[in-house]
Amino acid sequence: MTSHLIIATRESRLALWQANHVKHLLEMQGHTVSLLGMTTQGDQILDQPLSKVGGKGLFIKELEVALADGSAHIAVHSLKDVPMDLPEGYQLACILEREDPRDAWVSPHFESLAHLPEGAVVGTSSLRRTVLLQALRPDLKIEPLRGNLDTRLRKLDEGQYAGIVLASAGLKRLGLKDRIRHAFALDTMTPAAGQGAIGIEICADRQDLHRILSSLNHLPTAVQVYAERGVSRTMGGSCSMPLAAHATLASGQLSIHATWGDPQLKNTPLIHARAQCTLDTSAPDALSQATDLGKRVAQQLISQGALAH
Ligand SMILES: NCc1[nH]cc(CCC(=O)O)c1CC(=O)O
């Protein structure tokens, strides 16, 4: 049976690209789909880092209200912006195949971090990117940079920064791949949990929508990002914790690497942990096995001195 589906989305160019991508996938299955564009608090408060104004939930609350009052059926999110625990009554119905999860170095004049002069200014408001950059180049001056991708690129082009760090996935989706000087190595600029993946949220009581969306679920991506999110959940991670987690799945082995940095940005060394397990993605409990692996890696971080919230 086909349905008419309304997608709630933020109105940044990246959010609209992602919503239109989901629209297209659903239309290929015979559904008719329209978009409901919305502005969220996260889009409006631009003068402060997210870690100060209340974090990830800010980008999705208005969309959840639209789901609850029936003005939309599904909400499309960058998974990275979705809190670990959704409010009561909401669930993630599916995870789409992940784009490049790596962070990208973007700079008009400098090929890489190694080419930056002593004390150069790098733009990012992410605590994770800040501690990872400081570990690579303690001399750099990290300055805040917020706004959607176009805004951040404009600020870079105005000359306020020698370079900035952005998610490769967003740049590629918006046709801005040429702005990427190089993608950072996964083991030194480890991405945020879920980076590059798209998650679709529904009201938990809508089994009909769950069935429709389950056909869009990409299981290998789902187990990887559930493992990554397992780390964040166990650490009580939010944007106020410098936490990185990246999982890979190859030949039935799920491997994860997580990094924790001091949120006070003291020059304490980063804490790393790794773990792996064999995983049959077709097992009914594959996602909870993946989450458990993430939990295990988080406990290793904690046993080495990382502070959970
Ligand atoms: N925090 C904002 C945000 N949320 C998702 C992406 C990029 C796309 C993705 O990770 O899926 C970005 C921009 C960035 O981090 O550069």
TrEMBL record:
<dbReference type="InterPro" id="IPR000860">
    <property type="entry name" value="HemC"/>
</dbReference>
<protein>
    <recommendedName>
        <fullName>Porphobilinogen deaminase</fullName>
        <ecNumber>2.5.1.61</ecNumber>
    </recommendedName>
</protein>
<dbReference type="InterPro" id="IPR036803">
    <property type="entry name" value="Porphobilinogen_deaminase_C_sf"/>
</dbReference>
<comment type="similarity">
    <text>Belongs to the HMBS family.</text>
</comment>
<feature type="modified residue" description="S-(dipyrrolylmethanemethyl)cysteine">
    <location>
        <position position="239"/>
    </location>
</feature>
<feature type="domain" description="Porphobilinogen deaminase N-terminal">
    <location>
        <begin position="5"/>
        <end position="209"/>
    </location>
</feature>
<comment type="subunit">
    <text>Monomer.</text>
</comment>
<dbReference type="Pfam" id="PF03900">
    <property type="entry name" value="Porphobil_deamC"/>
</dbReference>
<dbReference type="InterPro" id="IPR022418">
    <property type="entry name" value="Porphobilinogen_deaminase_C"/>
</dbReference>
<feature type="domain" description="Porphobilinogen deaminase C-terminal">
    <location>
        <begin position="224"/>
        <end position="302"/>
    </location>
</feature>
<comment type="function">
    <text>Tetrapolymerization of the monopyrrole PBG into the hydroxymethylbilane pre-uroporphyrinogen in several discrete steps.</text>
</comment>
<keyword id="KW-0808">Transferase</keyword>
<comment type="pathway">
    <text>Porphyrin-containing compound metabolism; protoporphyrin-IX biosynthesis; coproporphyrinogen-III from 5-aminolevulinate: step 2/4.</text>
</comment>
<keyword id="KW-0627">Porphyrin biosynthesis</keyword>
<dbReference type="GO" id="GO:0004418">
    <property type="term" value="F:hydroxymethylbilane synthase activity"/>
</dbReference>
<dbReference type="InterPro" id="IPR022417">
    <property type="entry name" value="Porphobilin_deaminase_N"/>
</dbReference>
<dbReference type="Pfam" id="PF01379">
    <property type="entry name" value="Porphobil_deam"/>
</dbReference>
